[in-house]
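Record filed below.
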Amino acid sequence: MSSNSQEKQIENFLAHLKNEKGLAQNTTENYRRDLKQLLTFATEQGIDEWNGIVEHQLRFYVAQNHRQGLSGKSQQRKLSTIRTFFHYLIREGLAKANPAIGLTAPKTEKRLPRTLDTDQMSQLLDQKSNSNASSSQWHETRDQAMLELLYSSGLRLSEIVSSDITNIDWSDATIKVDGKGNKQRIIPVGAMALKSIKDWLSVREQLPLKKQVISCPDALFLSERGDRLSARSVQTRLTQWARSKGLPGKLHPHMLRHSFASHILESSQDLRAVQELLGHTDISTTQIYTHLDFQHLAQVYDNAHPRAHKNKSEGDANK
C-alpha cells in the first residue's frame, strides 16, 4: 500500500467525521493535522500501510514528540486522534488492532491559564482611553463590540468569528453559539456588550474601503473588505488594542475567556454554572479555575495575615 492510499484513508476518515459524526470544521482540521504528522512518521519508518503500525513503534513516536518539546496535553490529543482513527480502520476492515489503546501521554506540569484582573479588563475595555491612531472609528466601534462580547460571554475565538447577527436574542439578552462538536449553548450577554454591539450594528455596513461590498450579510463581525472577520484578524486587533491601552505582555482572545471564567467563579463560587457557560463537557476541565481562585485567596492571605510570614529579623537570628 502506498502513502497515497494511506492519505486516501485519512480523507475517507475525515469525511466520516464530518458527514456521519457532524464534527465542526476546526475539529476535523485538527484530526487532519495529527494524522498527516503520523503519516510522515510512518513514511520515515518505512511503514506503507496503517495495519503495519504496532504499539512499540507508536511508543517511539510519542517519545520522539516528547523530546521535541510537545506538551502532554498535545500528546493526549494526538493519541486520542490515533485511537479514533484506528477504531475506524478496524471497522472498515483495514486494520486488525488498535496500537494506541494501551498508550498514555507523558505528564507535563499543568500551567494555570493567564488572566487579566478586573482593573486590567476595565483598562482594556474603557472607551475613553483608546488612542490607536492607526484605527478608523469604524474599526474601533467593531473592536469594542468584539472584545466586550468575548469577555461578557466567555466565547471561544472560533465561536465569535462564526457568530451571526441572528444569533443574538435582544429580548432575552443572550447569544446562541455553536461550540466544540457543534454543541449549541445559549449564553447571557451583559448590558455593556449589548450596547457596544448595537453601536457596531449602526455602522457595520459603512465599510471604510471604497468599492467594497458585504459578501457575508449574516456575519456579526466583518472585515473592512466585507468578509467574515477571520480568527487571525481578531488576534491582531486585540494585540493592537491592548498596546494602545498600555497593557503589558501579549494578549490573546482565549485570555478574555479565562478572565471571564475566573471572575464569574470568584464572585459566584458556582463551578457547575461556569461549566455550563463555558460549554465544557467535563467539569474537570473547568476545575482549573478553582486553582486560579485559590491562588488569588492565597495571595490575599500572604499579604494580609500578620502571621503569614516569619519576621525577617527573627528569621535572620535563627540562621
